[in-house]
Amino acid sequence: MKIAILSRNRHLYSTRRLVEEGINKGHDVKVIDALHCSMNITSADPRIHYHEEVLENFDVVIPRIGASVTFYGTAVLRQFEMMGVFPLNESVAITRSRDKLRSLQLLARKGVGMPVTGFANKPDNVPELLQMVGGAPVVIKLLQGTQGIGVVLAETRKAAESVIEAFMGLKADILVQEFIKEAGGADIRCFVIGDKVIAAMKRQGGEGEFRSNLHRGGTASLVRITPQERRTAIAAAKAMGLNVAGVDLLRSSRGPLVMEVNSSPGLEGIETATGKNIAGMIINWTEKNQKPWKTRTKGGGG
To answer: Tell me, what's the pLDDT at 301?
Structure first.
């Protein structure tokens, strides 16, 4: 197969591992920076130009699109889809997962467990919003935040009101969620490929830190997940339409709750914690499922 990996940095661990495994299995692999692509958008012969080269004859595109370049990155991915290239994850599925509000609404529609979440536009609605999620302490999240940035734990009602009003004053869109105290600052990252959870790790936040992101000093360790957690992770990935996903779960008194579904989950933490060849599994799944023009959305729709 001829594989395109959409990544802005070929030296990143995840990109490097996918390249290694692709080459090890005899494939032709090319790393492409989506921001350096230009597109000829035409119904007759859609094309992608990259550094004066026309990208042709690719069988598979593996998107590793950073959150900050979602708009342009998914546009390039759509262009590949229009050219009949099989995407590991489709553009529409990535866009769904990156929109925090939309992704939670999709999960709710599919009956997937998640923390009680409130969303409002006016400061007048703040008291009702806090009551809606069960009162303080609450977690306040910027819709545009990633990797734990823009996530605040407000331990009292007064603190919550102050933070929410400050964000609203800056015209920032926020979600307010119940705080799952029993999770103890830890979450479970389930790595889903196809319709299976192929690996899982527990991420524990540092001392006094309720966020468990590895980028913020959290630690990762191997964990055994329950059948219910397995089913929840798979259902969450399917709700987004993702073939490969990192599903973050919180262990609560009422069962597993989905915190986030990541369409470009990092490989370093999960490979290190589990000792599994996740990159190789991704390439294997792609080999078995790749077909030209095999996209559910045909490059569009919602």
So the answer is: 40
Q: Give the CA count within 13 Å in the CB-facing half-sphere of 234.
A: 14
**Res. 236: pLDDT tops 80:** yes
User: In whole angstroms, what is the distance from residue 178 CA to residue 77 CA?
Assistant: 35
Phi/psi of residue 29, nearest 5 degrees: -115, 130
- The Cα 147–Cα 43 span in angstroms is 38
Pairing of strands 86-87, 60-63: parallel
- Domains plus CATH for the chain? 2-89 (3.40.50.20), 96-113+182-263 (3.30.470.20), 117-179 (3.30.1490.20)
Q: What is the pTM of this model?
A: 0.87
* Count of other CB atoms within 10 angstroms of residue 275: 9
The answer to whether the CB of 81 falls within 8 A of the CB of 95 is no
Return the percentage of the chain with pLDDT > 90, whole number.
69
Longest dimension (CA), the chain: 60
Q: How many CB atoms lie within 10 A of CB 174?
A: 25
Please report where in the chains the tokens 């597109």 appear, as a residue: 39
Contact 142, 151 (CB under 8 A): yes
Q: Are 75 and 92 in contact (CB under 8 A)?
A: no
State the pLDDT at residue 129.
Answer: 87
Q: Where is pLDDT greater, at 105 or 171? A: 105
The β-bridge relationship of strands 151-154 and 174-178 is unpaired
Q: E strands along the chain, which residues?
A: 2-6, 28-32, 37-40, 47-50, 53-54, 60-63, 86-87, 117-118, 138-142, 151-154, 174-178, 186-193, 196-204, 219-222, 244-252, 255-262
